[in-house]
Design a protein that fits this description.
With 94 residues, the chain is an alpha+beta fold. The protein has one domain: Glutaredoxin. It is 41% helix and 27% strand. Strands 2-1-3-4 form a four-stranded mixed sheet. α1 crosses α3. The radius of gyration is 13 Å and the shape is globular.
């Protein structure tokens, strides 16, 4: 089984929660279709840690693999699924 790291970046709990809800919905659909993958979702909460990935820490961000895919807004389940598909294509796993 291959693992795709996912990071939800925000110092604000409400912002992380909103992204996490969409991420959980996307995770269910993604892992059902791609059983050879699992998503490792972590939340990055401190400004110092967030700044390692993006200069924007007042708004939420999302990383899939080692790519920052969304900054400053709340992505939809459909957008997240698209980014996950792109990630597995780029790692040559499809």
């Amino acid at each position: 089984m291959q693992t795709i790291p996912v990071k939800i970046l925000s110092s604000k709990r409400s912002q992380r929660y909103s992204i996490a809800r969409a991420m959980i919905q996307a995770k269910s659909a993604f892992e059902e279709e791609h059983r050879e993958f699992e998503l490792d979702i972590t939340q990055v909460t401190t400004s110092q840690e967030i700044l390692k990935y993006t200069p924007v820490f007042a708004y939420p961000s999302l990383m899939i693999g080692d790519k920052l895919v969304c900054v400053g807004r709340f992505p939809t389940k459909v957008e997240i699924l698209g980014w996950l598909e792109t990630e597995i294509q780029q790692v040559g796993a499809v």
